[in-house]
Design goal:
By secondary structure, the chain is of the alpha/beta class. Helices cover 32% and strands 17% of the residues. The strands form 3 sheets. The protein has an 8-stranded parallel β-sheet with strand order 13-12-11-10-9-8-7-14.
Length: 340
């Protein structure tokens, strides 16, 4: 349920209304819209008398929300959510007027590799460093990542470059290792690992939530709702391609979901053109398309030696190619009114 309050309502009156509602057993989230305060009610709202609410002198509208996702719903939070990160870069933000570029290798392979890539993507203008320490792989014989040592190398690269780091968490038992990680990635295979999502709801650490390989938009938003229900609203949604019948590209990049998500939710939405296409030469085109579709950022794989990469070399850009991409992205982001 949504309660839109009239302009001019005092903080005391808002707090009193919230207290009266919480006595009925519902949880109330308050957010400031562009012109009015909006209260979002979660729980058994059947106990709420709509007519009695409308009779309150400070209530403008009472709206019953039909979608199963509540906290992720733009009706609950009319303004875009913007996530801010500590960084020595000019702007390490995702959402709103900010366009975030997250770049780095698919997997952490060595100190030399990671630091070299981190320094190059920072020089080109990336705001975040990505790199997989733990790698979920289809084959048990493929490179699975460096694990704890990979986390240590990411933290070292963060200290040297000042870039916030993004890396994937695979299971709850690993969570304590992510203390110095700035944003935890939940991969497509774990999008509906509900126990993991619940635990991340308690962590209060930003979460990059990737869409499952065959998941609907509602399922993605409900996965975000699991994290938000635990008290963590710092979530970035990521479209990384879904399975289709044509195997020319690694996945099918569903750009249509970007404007749909922007309409339905206040959470930032980014695109992963590397995993979506699996082909490095397609990444620039799909990055430009992502900006045109309204995305709040991209996450791109960059490797200084793709031919010898231990993971996904075919979809990784060389540092020089990434620099060229950033020069193009700046022009496109400027057209869309985004700050890079």
């Amino acid at each position: 349920m949504i309660i839109a309050l009239k302009p001019g309502v005092s903080k005391e009156d808002i707090n009193q209304l919230i207290a009266d509602l919480e006595i009925l057993g519902v949880k109330v989230d308050s957010s400031q819209g562009s012109s009015q305060v909006v209260l979002g009610l979660v729980g058994d709202t059947t106990v709420i008398n709509d007519d009695a609410l409308r009779a309150n002198r400070w209530v403008d509208r009472v709206i019953r929300v039909q979608e199963p996702y509540k906290r992720a719903n733009r009706m609950f939070h009319p303004l875009d959510t913007v996530l801010e990160f500590k960084s020595d870069q000019k702007a390490a933000k995702i959402g709103g007027d900010f366009f975030a570029v997250i770049a780095g290798p698919c997997s952490v392979e060595s100190r030399q590799q990671l630091v070299a890539v981190a320094e190059s993507v920072k020089k080109s203008g990336a705001a975040f460093l990505r790199g997989g320490a733990f790698k979920p792989r289809t084959s048990p014989y493929s490179f699975q990542g460096m694990g704890c040592e990979g986390i240590d190398l990411l933290v070292e690269a963060k200290k040297e470059t000042g870039l916030p780091i993004v890396t994937e968490l695979m299971e709850i038992s690993q969570l304590e290792l992510f203390e110095d990680v700035d944003m935890i990635q939940v991969g497509a295979r774990n999008m509906q690992n509900f126990n993991l999502l619940k635990e991340l709801g308690k962590s209060k650490k930003p979460v990059l939530l990737k869409r499952g390989m065959a998941s609907t938009m509602t399922e993605l938003l409900m996965a975000a709702e699991y994290v938000m229900a635990g008290g963590n609203s710092q979530i970035v949604l990521c479209e990384r391609g879904i399975r289709g019948f044509d195997n020319f590209t690694r996945n099918i990049l569903d750009l249509a979901i970007i404007p749909a998500l922007k309409k339905k939710t206040h959470l930032p939405v980014i695109v992963d053109p590397s995993h979506a296409t699996g082909l490095s030469w397609m990444v620039p085109s799909m990055s430009k398309a992502a900006i045109a579709a309204g995305a709040d950022g991209i996450i791109v794989e960059v490797h200084n030696d793709p031919e010898h990469a231990l993971c996904d070399g075919e979809q990784s850009l060389m540092p020089e190619q990434f620099n060229d991409l950033m020069n193009v992205i700046r022009k496109y982001a400027d057209i869309e009114g985004k700050v890079l």
